[in-house]
Amino acid sequence: MKGTWIGQIGWIGRISRIGWSVLLAALAGVFAAAASELVTATVDSGGGRSSSANYTLDASIGGIGGISLGGDATARLGYCGQLTEVATLSVTGTPAQVPETSTTQLSGTATLDDDTHTALAGSEIAWAIPTWPIAQISASGVASAAVVYANLPATVNGSYAGVAGSGSLVVLDTIPDNFGLYAGDGLPDWWQVQYFGLENPNAAPDKDVTGTGQNNRFKFVAGLDPTNAASVFQLRIEPVSGQPNQKRLVFSPRWNDRTYTPLFRTNLLVGSWQVLSNTNVSDNGTERTVIDTNVTGNVRFYRIQISYP
Predict the structure, then answer these.
(1) 2 phi and psi angles, rounded to 5 deg
(2) CATH 3.30.360, domain 86-172, yes or no
């Protein structure tokens, strides 16, 4: 009986070890199944799911993690890294005002979707083909200004991580009257470009494209539109009723930023023009009336001298 009892104990022990092995194997299978479902089905109490348009993150990090929201910014605490995307790109130039034919260094700032910012060197931005008055932009972001006829705004465009952005510059006209065909001809380049566009021979000082007898040089000084045949400077000489020793000089247009000096002479072949004194002056809009109150002799010639600026 004693031997049998021992044998029974040993048999029972063997059966028990086999039973526990089977039980442990079954439990391991349950745990493995639960673990394989954790990512898509459940997370522990310290984890969570965060997502944006392009990614989803499931985390299981214990009790020290978390997600906090504030306005447009999201902080994912407890992660060793954080996924971000570029939201906007702004471009700047140093200096922002660049003299014609000179250069400026471009750089940028990328604003990320978590409201943080990243400074970008000019070489990190893919630059678009520039438009005038920017002549070219190098791969390192050095922008070269073209020759201009006046201080002109300029726009530079580029992209970073597929996001486009732009910036504004000003190209300064530092060399007067040096613009192309109009350089050094005595008329301001900006005035010629305003009325005739770029590189137009009709903008030359001696041209009169409207056939009024007043050329571009005179029209600039007088404040006229050189492309409009109705835009002319006119002077009328009229008698003053009941005043035989007076003459009325009526001329237009008159502008506040110009100086008008009436001149006279009694002989076109001998002598010179003299400033008319003893006058009464009145204005009516763009028309000015000057009364010569001391007309002597049988013949008197008049002219108006215009100064600008």
Answers:
(1) -65, -45
(2) no
What's the rounded mean pLDDT across residues 153-173?
A: 97
* 168 Rama class: left (phi>0) / alpha (psi -120 to 50) / beta: beta
- The pair of structure tokens assigned to 224 is 């006229």
- SS3 state of residue 282: strand
What pairing do the DSSP bridges indicate for beta strands 73-77 and 117-120?
unpaired
At 60 the pLDDT is 54
3-state secondary structure of 189: helix
At 89, list the tokens. 């790109």
CA 153 to CA 187: how far, in whole Å? 22
Phi, psi of 162 (to 5 degrees): 80, 0
Using a 10 angstrom Cβ sphere, with 0-12 exposed, 13-18 middle and 19 or more buried, the burial of residue 240 is middle
Report yes or no: 160 and 195 within 8 Å, Cβ to Cβ: no
Q: How do strand 163-172 and strand 97-99 relate by DSSP bridges? A: parallel
Dihedral angle sign, alpha carbons of residues 200, 201, 203, 207:
negative
pLDDT tens-digit readout, 17-58? 444 444 444 444 444 444 444 444 444 445 566 666 666 665
* pLDDT score of 3 more than 90: no
Residue boundaries of the structural domains of the chain? 1-37, 48-77, 86-172, 180-222, 234-307
pLDDT digits (tens, 9 = 90+) for 247-284: 999 999 999 999 999 999 999 999 999 999 999 999 99
Query: Pairing mode, if any, of strands 163-172 and 86-94?
Result: parallel
- For residues 51 and 57, give the distance between their C-alpha atoms in angstroms, rounded to a whole number: 6
Weakest-pLDDT range from 5-9, 30-34, 296-300 = 5-9
